Amino acid sequence: MNKVILMGRLTRDPEVRYTQTNNTLVASFSLAVNRRFVRQGEERQADFINIVAWSKLGEFCSKYFKKGQQVGIIGRIQTRNWDDDQGQKHYVTEVVAEEAYFADSKRDGDSGSASFDATFGTMPNANSGSDFEISSGDDLPF
């Protein structure tokens, strides 16, 4: 199984290219992912992980993701290699994105027109005027 789940901040805006063969969009960006533990007396360290998103997902990332924004990425690790013009072999390991999510919480000053909750992995608020309701266990069907 090859599955990667990352949450981190974009180190730069996504860069968009198109393939030469069939003009498919590909967006590339890098995520700074904090390491889980900090050694005493040291600053928190981060790993910088290259992400590639293809086609519609790449278009989404290039349109809505910006430098410094926290995002969640689900994908797979892929390695590739190539020879440059001087005959030197290059290797790269990257994550091919299969899903991408906003992970920043809404800012107080944001008055954007988006009608979705940009917080990753939260439950809807029962008091937000929606139809979402948590009932007592008496009327549950199980």
Provide structural commentary.
A hairpin with a 6-residue loop joins strand 2 (15-18) and strand 3. The protein is mainly beta and 142 residues long. 7% of the residues lie in helices and 41% in strands. It has a five-stranded mixed barrel with strand order 1-3-4-6-5. It has a domain at 4-36 and 44-105: Beta Barrel (OB fold (Dihydrolipoamide Acetyltransferase, E2P)), CATH 2.40.50.140.
What structural class do the secondary elements suggest? Answer: mainly beta
**CATH T-level fold name of one domain:** OB fold (Dihydrolipoamide Acetyltransferase, E2P)
Could you give the distance between the termini? 34 Å
- The proportion of residues forming helix, as a percent range, comes to under 10%
- Global Rg: 20 Å
The CATH homologous superfamily of one domain corresponds to Nucleic acid-binding proteins
Mean pLDDT: 82
Percent of residues in beta strands: 35-45%
Q: How many β-strand runs?
A: 6
- Compressed to H and E, one letter per element, the order equals EEEEHEE
Query: Spans of 5+ residues with little confidence (pLDDT < 50)?
Result: 111-137
Helix count, per DSSP?
Answer: 1
Query: What is the overall shape?
Result: globular
In CATH's first tier, which class of one domain applies?
Mainly Beta
Strand order of the largest sheet: 1-3-4-6-5
